[in-house]
Design brief:
Elements lengths: L2 H6 L7 H15 L6 E7 L5 E7 L2 E3 L2 E7 L3 H8 L2 E8 L4 E11 L2 H10 L2 H9 L9 H14 L11 E15 L7 E8 L2 E7 L2
Antiparallel strand pairs: 1-2, 1-5, 3-4, 4-7, 5-6, 6-7, 7-8, 8-9
Helix pairs in contact: 5-6
Length: about 200
Amino acid sequence: MTAATAAALGEPGDDPIAAFHRLFAAAQAAGGADPTAAALATAAADGSPSVRIVLVKHVDEAGLRFFTNRGSRKARELADNPRAALCFWWPAIAWQFRAEGGVEPLPDADSDAYFSSRARDSQIGAWASRQSAPLASRDVLEERCAQVAARYADAPVPRPPFWGGYLLVPERIELWSGREHRLHDRWLYRRVAEGWSMERLYP
């Protein structure tokens, strides 16, 4: 994707969430990497940062939703410091979407609904994985999966009580569009009482 094509998508407008959906659709149509993938940055209580790729499964005016094992490192850090940042990079269209804000657990009903939509093998894997804990060997993980599969052989796989969703409520959003000679376009949005304020930033 060239900078000229990225520019052809136009300016994002006053509503960053509407811009997200327009850009997401363009990235999806362009093909390539999964457009739901985003880097999630969290920090421990002492400020030590960590980052990893997660899949963001829904974005609307309320925020951005992702799901994980609540015993994982990211979940433990969110319990101690419930703030995070997400960054989508869509190389096929040369656009980037960043969101920062507080994070809160989703209601069980939301987690149940998403879990029930996952592939059965992924549901089994959620039960089998003690995410972020030490693992002696691959064989141990596969044995745990086999045990879960046997347990629910004739039944739907329920959501594990230790697995669920989170909502990042954005206070600050930045959109970035790649341009030639590193003279990129950047727009910063801040949440205000009536919606969003917007200003351009130098690249």
